[in-house]
Each structure stands twice: as C-alpha cells, then as structure tokens.
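From the methods appendix. Each design record in this collection lists the tokenized structure first, followed by the designed amino acid sequence. Records were kept in a plain field format so they could be parsed without special tools. The example shown here is representative of the layout used throughout.

RECORD:
FOLD TOKENS (384 positions):
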C-alpha cells in the first residue's frame, strides 16, 4: 500500500542532472526500490500544517495569483492557494455525469493530438486541463511545485487514519474485542488527501501525454515541462510514479482523472441545463459578433435546405399526377407557410435571446463594478 506520508516518486527532476538511460528501479539511487530509502515523514503538527513555505519551495510558486474577489496577491504556499490551484472543484460537482463528456481512459499522447488536428493551448486552470473543443485542446503545464519531493512530504502528508470511519463500540458497558464499523459512510476526506489525489491524477495524466520522446520534445517546445527536466530523467520519473502506486493508480487519483479528455461542448450543456449556469462551463462567445455568426450560420443552412425542398415542390406541380393529388397539395401549402414563418420566427427568437443576454450582461457589469469600487474604497471616478 502506498505510504501517504511520502512522495510518489524519488527522483529530483529539477536539479538538471542527466539520469542514466539504462538505470532501473533497483540500480538507481533515486528509484523507489532504493535500499537507502528515506523513512516516512510524519505530518506536521496542526498549527504548522500550512506555515510559510521554505525558501526553496517559494521559488517554485507563481509570481502572483488572483483571488475569488478578483484581487491580485503574491503567491503564498497556503491551503487556499493549493485548493484553488490544484483541485478540480467545478468538475467534482458533476462527477456522475462525466461519462457523457469523456471516456474513462488516460488521455492520448501529444503526438496523437496533432493527428487529430488539435492545437495545444496552455491553460493554468486545473479544471480546464485536457478539456477539448474543435481544433484545440487545453493543457496545464506541470507546476514546478509538484516535481519537488519536499512538497509532497511536507505539505501533502496525511495520516491514513484521518479519513477512516470512526469505530462505533457496542451498547454494553464493556468494549468488544473488535470495533464495529458504522454503516454510515466514512467522514469526508481531509484537504491534504483531496489535494494529493488531484495532484497525483494530474501527474498520471502526463505519463500518458508524454509517452514517447517526440511527445517530450513537443512538451518542451510548448513549455509544458520545466526546462531542467531531461528525457532520461522523465523516464525514471514515470517508472517510479507508476511503480509506487503498485498497479492501483486508479484507486489513488481523483475521480476526475479517471477520465482523460473531456469535450467542452458537452460540459457547457451540462452546466447550462443541469447546473443552471447560463454561461456554461466556458463562455463560447468572447464577442456578440461570435454569437450571431454561430447561430446565423446554421440558420442559413436550414434556409438553403428549405429552398431546395420548395424547388422540388415547384417541379412536382409541373407534372401531370401531383397537381391533382390532395395530399401533395396539402403538404405543399403547409410547407410553404412554414418556409415563410419558420425562419422569421427563429430569427426573432435569436434577437430576443440576444437582448436578454445583453441586458443581463449589462446589469451584471454594473453590479460588479459597484462591488469592486466598494472593495477598493473608490468613491468616484471623476477627477477632483
């Protein structure tokens, strides 16, 4: 069983040292089967769980981060930062619907994404990692923090008993020899284990994305992995990560990472209809012109198809038998009325929807500006 106190790998990928290509788990001093393996580190005391980061780990953090209130703060290694940076909260709330969005399999390698005509777009959001749409896929670069073994042992160490169910003893005066576990589910996971499972799943996704040396070179060109990492060291890292989980990687990672690539269009539909979020998972239109372009394109296609049917009906009227056919006359009359009213009705609905969205965005912008000005303690924008 994997020790929750230790890092899932031993090799130091950030030291820039070239690992031996032929080094195996038993011969490498960095391997998980090293005879001189470091003992398991105990979790820090509660009051020191998220103390200020050491100088070494502080250098691995981003320069700044955005808070929920859209303020900019210097990055600090605390619980709030780890939750926002490394967890997939927006996907965790729809885990029971992920089967509609993607397949329960690791992602395909980077070179295969090219074969699918997908361009890799860099994102720093964990919940956008491996989300794809037509012609592009979003990939989060590996944070340097996750490649530091000290981070796993000092900040993600978790007692295995902290998330276990509490034993419930019998109702008698004496305790039984064996505890009786309650029928109720175990207590919720602690933040440390939840973050650890998410980080482990994220690294596991990269073992699939970077399978070949060509994938590794592509990842380096896209700055998905730190420049210090070498291909030979990456191979050892993947071996150690997979060996450390003892073939039970799917039981150790966050459930989001049981699924690889996720389709953005279906995520949007789930968020619009199931979560009732009008913007969806990711707003599809950055400008209103994009809204009209997308909707008028399919409307023009429908109008073109209707025109073809009307032309066929007109040809049918020139024949000898169809003009005297009552069913044909009824269908022709009804479809002609539909071809006149239908497109105009759809266009009016699009205009009404646009006006509703425009009004909602206008009101939301005014409300947001007022809240931001109050938070920034700005009374007026006029010059004094």
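DESIGN:
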């Amino acid at each position: 069983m994997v020790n929750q106190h230790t890092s899932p790998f031993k090799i130091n990928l950030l030291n820039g040292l070239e690992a031996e290509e032929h080094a195996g788990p038993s011969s490498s001093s960095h391997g998980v089967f090293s005879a001189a393996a470091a003992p398991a580190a105990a979790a820090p005391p509660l009051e020191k769980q998220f103390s200020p980061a050491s100088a070494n780990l502080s250098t691995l953090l981003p320069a700044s981060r955005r808070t929920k209130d859209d303020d900019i703060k210097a990055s600090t290694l605390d619980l709030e930062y780890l939750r926002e940076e490394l967890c997939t909260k927006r996907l965790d709330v729809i885990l029971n619907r992920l089967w509609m969005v993607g397949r329960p399999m690791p992602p395909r390698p980077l070179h295969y994404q090219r074969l699918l005509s997908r361009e890799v777009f860099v994102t720093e959001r964990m919940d956008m990692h491996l989300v794809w749409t037509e012609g592009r896929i979003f990939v989060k670069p590996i944070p340097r923090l996750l490649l530091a073994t000290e981070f796993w042992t000092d900040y993600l160490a978790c007692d295995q008993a902290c998330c276990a169910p509490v034993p419930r003893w019998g109702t008698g005066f004496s305790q039984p020899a064996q505890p009786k576990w309650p029928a109720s589910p175990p207590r919720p996971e602690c933040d440390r284990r939840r973050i650890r499972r998410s980080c482990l799943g994220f690294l596991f996704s990269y073992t699939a994305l970077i399978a070949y040396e060509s994938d590794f070179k592509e990842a380096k060109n896209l700055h998905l992995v730190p420049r210090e990492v070498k291909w030979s060291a990456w191979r050892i890292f993947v071996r150690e990560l997979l060996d450390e989980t003892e073939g039970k990687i799917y039981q150790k990672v966050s459930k989001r990472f049981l699924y690889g690539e996720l389709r953005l269009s279906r995520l949007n539909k789930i968020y619009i209809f199931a979560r009732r979020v009008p913007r969806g998972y990711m707003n599809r239109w950055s400008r209103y012109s994009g809204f009209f372009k997308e909707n008028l394109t399919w409307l023009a296609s429908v109008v073109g198809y209707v025109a073809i049917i009307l032309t066929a009906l007109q040809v049918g009227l020139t024949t000898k038998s169809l003009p005297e056919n009552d069913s044909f006359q009824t269908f022709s009359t009804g479809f002609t009325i539909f071809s006149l009213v239908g497109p105009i009705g759809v266009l009016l609905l699009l205009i009404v929807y646009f006006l509703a969205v425009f009004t909602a965005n206008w009101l939301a912008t005014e409300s947001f500006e007022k809240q931001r000005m109050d938070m920034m303690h700005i009374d007026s924008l006029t010059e004094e």
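APPENDIX NOTE: The chain has twelve helices and six strands.
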